[in-house]
Design goal:
alpha/beta, six-stranded parallel β-sheet, disordered C terminus, globular, single chain
Length: 381
C-alpha cells in the first residue's frame, strides 16, 4: 500500500460557496491526499488548505500591460497569482486540478510531478463579449492564455457540450463535459396548490435582462406568483429591478439562502424559471446549477430556447420551452401553465433525479485524474 498521491485543487473563488469545486473536494478527498488553495476557510475533509487573501483579485487590471500586449507581465502581476506563489510550494504536489483558465498557468508553473487537469467553467475568450472594453482588452489576453497554456494540460473538462466544442474548434483542445449537476437528494413529488408558485434565482447583472421577468408578470392572474432571489452583483441594477417590481404584486424578492438549503427551498415551489437571454456566448451555451437543483427539488422547469437546456427538457420531459427570449414569449408560456402539466413535470424530475445527478457526472473527473496518476505509474491501489 503506497501513500496516496497528493492532489491540489486550485481555484480563485470562495471555495465554500463554489458548488462545482466542492464537488471535486467531495469526490477526491478519500482517494487522494487533497490540498486546496482558494479564498476563505478550508472545506471539510481536506488534508491541508492554503487560504488566499480575500482582496487578491484573480483577473487583470494592468491596463498598460493589456494595451501593449505584455501578457506574461499582466498574468504575473495578478494579485491572486502573486499570493498563491508566495504560499504554495513548487514541485511538491503530484497532480493539480486547476479551476478556470486564470489558474492554469500558475498550476503548470508549480510543476506537479504527474500533471495538471484544467476544469474550465466557461468559454473564457468570450465570457463577457457583450462588453466592448472587455472584447478589446481582456479577450485577446484570454485567447493568449488558451493558445499558450491549454496544450500543456494533461486533460480538460468544461460545463456544457457547446463550450467543449468551442475549445476543440478554436484551440484543438479535446474537452470532456462535466455538467453542473447537483448532488442526488432523496425527494418526493408535492402536489400543486391553489396558486402556482414560480421561482427564479440569478446574479444581479444587467446583461441577464431580469426586467423580462417583471414585464412578463405584469397583470398576472391571482393564481400565479413569482419569487426572485437576486444576488447584489450590481447593486444599482438590483435597486432598479425592485423599483420596477413594486407595481407588480405577483412578484416578491426574497433573500438568498445558503447553498446547503437551496434544494429544500426550491422544493417549496412548483416551477423554476431558468430563462437566460443569450447576450454572450456562455449564456447561449449555459447549463447552470439552478437547472439541476430544480430537478433534485422535484419541480418543473421553464427554459428559453438555450440549446443545452432545451435538449434535456425534451429528453426527460421536465417542463416547457419558450418560443424565444422575449418577455412576451415568457408571459405566454407562464399563462399556459396548468396544475396537470406541472404535476407531470414534477414526476419527470423525480424520474430524472438519478441520471441527472452530480454522482452520474463526476466519473469524468475521476477518470481524468486517474489517467494522470497512472501516467507516472502511480495508479491508486
Amino acid at each position: 500500500m503506497t501513500d496516496l498521491p497528493s492532489l491540489l485543487i486550485l481555484t480563485f473563488s470562495p471555495l465554500r460557496s463554489d458548488p462545482r469545486v466542492l464537488k471535486q473536494v467531495e469526490l477526491f478527498k478519500d482517494k487522494y491526499r487533497v490540498v486546496t488553495c482558494a479564498y476563505g476557510e478550508a472545506p471539510d475533509g481536506v488534508a491541508e488548505h492554503f487560504a488566499l487573501p480575500e482582496d487578491s483579485r484573480g483577473w487583470p487590471s494592468d491596463k498598460v500591460g493589456l494595451v501593449s500586449r505584455q501578457y506574461g507581465k499582466v498574468y504575473n502581476s495578478l494579485p491572486a497569482v502573486q499570493s498563491a506563489r508566495a504560499i504554495l510550494p513548487k514541485g511538491s504536489f503530484d497532480i493539480i486540478l486547476a479551476n478556470d483558465l486564470n489558474t492554469l498557468p500558475l498550476a503548470l508553473d508549480l510543476a506537479p510531478k504527474m500533471g495538471v487537469h484544467a476544469d474550465l467553467h466557461e468559454f473564457a475568450p468570450r465570457e463577457k463579449e457583450d462588453n466592448l472594453k472587455w472584447r478589446l482588452f481582456i479577450a485577446p489576453f484570454m485567447r493568449w492564455l488558451c493558445s499558450r497554456y491549454l496544450p500543456s494540460a494533461a486533460s480538460v473538462t468544461s460545463v456544457s457540450q457547446g463550450i467543449a466544442d468551442e475549445y476543440l474548434k478554436d484551440y484543438g483542445t479535446p474537452t470532456e463535459v462535466v455538467t453542473n449537476a447537483a448532488p442526488y437528494v432523496q425527494g418526493t413529488v408535492k402536489p400543486v396548490g391553489e396558486k402556482v408558485r414560480l421561482i427564479h434565482s440569478a446574479a444581479g447583472q444587467r446583461y441577464r435582462k431580469l426586467e423580462n421577468f417583471i414585464e412578463a408578470m405584469k397583470d398576472a392572474p391571482e393564481w400565479l406568483t413569482l419569487d426572485m432571489i437576486v444576488m447584489p452583483n450590481e447593486p444599482d441594477y438590483v435597486a432598479e429591478l425592485k423599483a420596477l417590481a413594486a407595481a407588480v404584486p405577483a412578484i416578491t424578492f426574497r433573500d438568498p439562502v445558503p447553498y446547503r438549503d437551496l434544494v429544500a427551498t426550491l422544493g417549496e415551489y412548483d416551477v423554476s424559471v431558468v430563462f437566460l437571454p443569450p447576450t454572450n456566448f456562455n449564456l447561449k451555451n449555459a447549463l447552470p446549477n439552478k437547472f439541476f437543483e430544480a430537478v433534485q427539488a422535484r419541480i418543473g422547469l421553464i427554459v428559453g430556447p438555450s440549446p443545452a437546456m432545451m435538449g434535456l427538457v425534451r429528453e426527460y420531459g421536465l417542463g416547457a420551452i419558450t418560443e424565444d427570449f422575449s418577455a412576451e414569449s415568457l408571459r405566454k408560456t407562464l399563462l399556459s401553465l396548468t396544475p396537470a402539466a406541472i404535476t407531470e413535470w414534477k414526476r419527470a424530475a423525480d424520474a430524472a433525479a438519478n441520471p441527472l445527478s452530480a454522482e452520474a457526472q463526476v466519473s469524468v473527473w475521476e477518470a481524468a485524474i486517474a489517467r494522470i496518476a497512472a501516467i507516472d505509474g502511480a495508479a491508486i491501489r
